Amino acid sequence: MKVYTIGFTQKDAEKFFSFLKVSQVKTLIDVRLNNVSQLSGFAKRDDLRFFLKELCGADYAHLPELAPTKDILSAYKKGDMPWRQYEDKFLNLMAQRNVEKSIVPSLLDHGCLLCSEHEPHFCHRRLVVDYLNENSSLDLKVKHLY
């Protein structure tokens, strides 16, 4: 099953929506904790829903169960927690939430996980895909768009 990930920072709207359209993304899966921040520009929930439908013919879904908790995210962003510890805490959180049992596989098929980080290397969207590949029968082939 093909799945994508994307971050909206360091991209203008044209580049962002072009990536999604060319990749034929069916559903943008928002895995951010806060999807209505004024800092998100074109990537705020309601704007995304509209632009996705109009520009890409794609749907929008917000899955906060695939986001870190506020405490984990804050500690990492403030520099109080190194990436390795963040990664461990986040993966444990995914296990506690049993996300592999609640995720609808068809949502992931040509779906794209959205977060704010430009690159996936130090972002939880990559960890979500890794976790699902390890802990479910899904065979996700991931392509990071950046």
Describe this structure in words.
There is one protein chain. By secondary structure, the chain is an alpha/beta fold. The protein has one domain (2-145): Cobalt-precorrin-4 Transmethylase, domain 1 (3-Layer(aba) Sandwich). It has 7 helices and 5 strands. It has helices spanning 13-22, 45-56, 70-77, 83-97, 99-102, 105-108, 124-135; strands at residues 2-7, 27-30, 59-62, 111-115, 141-145. The protein has a 5-stranded parallel sheet, with helices on both faces. Helix 1 packs across helix 2 and helix 4 crosses helix 7 (124-135). The longest helix has 15 residues, at 83-97. The radius of gyration is 14 Å and the shape is globular. The mean pLDDT is 96.
